[in-house]
Amino acid sequence: MTDNYAKLEKLGEGTYGVVYKAKDRTTGRIVALKKIRLEDGEEGIPPTSIREISLLKEANRNENIVKLLDIVSQERKLYLVFEFLTMDLRKFIKEIPKENGMESLTMQKFMYQLVDGTMYLHMRRIFHRDLKPQNLLIDSQGDLKVADFGLARAAGIPLKPYTHEVVTLWYRAPEILLGSFHYAFAIDMWSIGCDSEIEQLFMVFEVLGTPDEETWPGVTKFPDYNPNFPRWKPQKLRDFVPSLDSLGLDLLQKLFTYDTIRRISAKRALSHPYFNRWKSLKNFKR
């Protein structure tokens, strides 16, 4: 490992390992090293790591998904080598002056790139299951890429029960919050629409209205549904995100659709007129 890469600094630490900024000694390229924790007494590479590597290799061809460059396996150590990106979306947003907000074209670009990367995953039957600003990285050219596939998994046919202990709470779709073990790619689309204002199920209900069988067929069958939930009427999304134009609000409404069958897919979202201005400028630059 030390023959090929020189660690420069520690970037972060999570449940599954430590991430370092490093330099490729051969090419001089700056990369990100993800050191996977191997438990004592564990034989071989952990199944979660094998799954992550497999899904990353499957998704490696899309420009809006972080690139896996190399895998280095040593005794009791496993490193995943990624392209290095300068910051995540959470940090990017924090650095924007509050009085200005994010420029509308930048917002369209990031959203388009996020949906494009997500559509690529969904077309290959991959759930990300943890889309949030910390897992969306920004490169030096100002482009967004989907990262961190630690909770991702490939969907089988037919869909089987999955754990509902996925997706950071603020970005969790209501079907998961209500205890469903059967969910589909729609959970990623809900996460795309989320921001840090929606922290828990009742806060969702307060904004979008408390769901019932008319607005969401089958909702009363979820394990954690309670017929005594407080009854809220839906509010206007414009009051919560006044910076969005009418097209942006329309897309947000389609992302925040309770009924998973009616919730917009990544493919349909990519064709939404909200992105027309960004797509015209993108084609012009080409």
UniProtKB/TrEMBL annotation:
InterPro entries: CDK (IPR050108), Kinase-like_dom_sf (IPR011009), Prot_kinase_dom (IPR000719), Protein_kinase_ATP_BS (IPR017441), Ser/Thr_kinase_AS (IPR008271). It catalyses: L-threonyl-[protein] + ATP = O-phospho-L-threonyl-[protein] + ADP + H(+); L-seryl-[protein] + ATP = O-phospho-L-seryl-[protein] + ADP + H(+). Coiled coil: none annotated. Its EC number is 2.7.11.22. Gene3D superfamilies: Phosphorylase Kinase, domain 1, Transferase(Phosphotransferase) domain 1. It is an enzyme of class 2 (transferase). Residues 5-275 form the Protein kinase domain. Belongs to the protein kinase superfamily. CMGC Ser/Thr protein kinase family. CDC2/CDKX subfamily. It comes from Acaulospora morrowiae. Keywords: ATP-binding, Kinase, Nucleotide-binding, Serine/threonine-protein kinase, Transferase. The lineage of its organism: Eukaryota, Fungi, Fungi incertae sedis, Mucoromycota, Glomeromycotina. GO terms for biological process: G1/S transition of mitotic cell cycle; regulation of G2/M transition of mitotic cell cycle; regulation of gene expression; signal transduction. One of its GO terms (cellular component) is cytoplasm. The keyword Metal-binding does not apply. ATP binds at K34. This is Cyclin-dependent kinase 1. One of its GO terms (molecular function) is cyclin binding. Pfam families: Pkinase.
